[in-house]
Design a protein that fits this description.
With 160 residues, this protein is an alpha+beta fold. It has helices at 16-35, 41-48, 51-62, 136-159, and strands at residues 10-12, 68-71, 74-77, 80-84, 88-96, 106-115, 120-128. Strand 3 (74-77) and strand 4 (80-84) form a beta hairpin. Helix 1 (16-35) packs antiparallel against helix 2.
Length: 160
C-alpha cells in the first residue's frame, strides 16, 4: 500500500509489466519476420507492421496517465474530476457477474456524489481492470483517508 499523507496523490495506472510484455511479443514478431521471412511477401509485409504496436506499447509503458487519481481535493477519472469532497457521499467496490467463459473477477468502483443546485445524487461507475497497479481495497482505503482528512480540516475551520 502506498504511504499516504495530506500532500500526496493516490494514483492508479495500468501495470507497466503488461505493456512491456505485449511490446516484447510484437517486437519478436517483427524480428522473426525480418530474420526468417516465409517467402510469402504479403505475409512478411503484414508481419513488418508488428513493429508499430511494439513501439506503441513500449512508449505507453513509460508514459502513463493516471486512470484514477485521489487526493485532498477529490476524485478524478481519466483526467476529469468526478467529485470534490464537499459533494462526496460514498464509494464502494461492486463485484459484477462473471461473463460466460470468463475467468477473471470483474469489479467496478461506484462513487456517489451530489451534483447541481438541486442536490441531485449521481453515481459514477469506473471499471477496475485486472491490469491496473492498485487493488480495489487500496483505492477505497485512499478515498477513506482523504475524505476523513477533508472532514477533520473542515471541522477545524468551523471551530475557529
Amino acid at each position: 500500500m502506498q504511504e499516504l499523507n495530506p500532500d500526496t496523490e493516490f494514483t492508479v495506472t495500468e501495470a507497466t509489466l503488461v505493456d512491456l510484455l505485449i511490446a516484447l511479443v510484437f517486437i519478436c514478431m517483427f524480428v522473426s519476420a525480418v530474420l526468417y521471412g516465409s517467402g510469402n511477401r504479403a505475409l512478411d509485409r503484414v508481419m513488418y507492421l508488428s513493429l508499430f504496436p511494439g513501439i506503441g506499447f513500449a512508449i505507453r509503458a513509460f508514459i502513463k496517465k493516471a486512470a484514477i487519481l485521489v487526493n485532498k481535493k477529490g476524485i478524478w477519472f481519466a483526467g476529469q474530476p468526478v467529485t470534490d469532497w464537499n459533494n462526496f457521499i460514498a464509494a464502494k467496490i461492486n463485484q459484477l457477474e462473471m461473463r460466460s467463459g470468463g475467468w477473471e473477477d470483474r469489479n467496478e468502483l461506484a462513487v456517489e456524489y451530489y451534483k447541481g443546485t438541486e442536490g441531485d445524487v449521481y453515481k459514477k461507475t469506473i471499471a477496475l481492470l485486472s491490469t491496473q497497479n492498485k487493488s480495489g481495497e487500496e483505492i477505497i482505503a485512499a478515498i477513506e483517508y482523504f475524505y476523513e482528512l477533508y472532514k477533520t480540516t473542515n471541522e477545524q475551520s468551523f471551530e475557529k
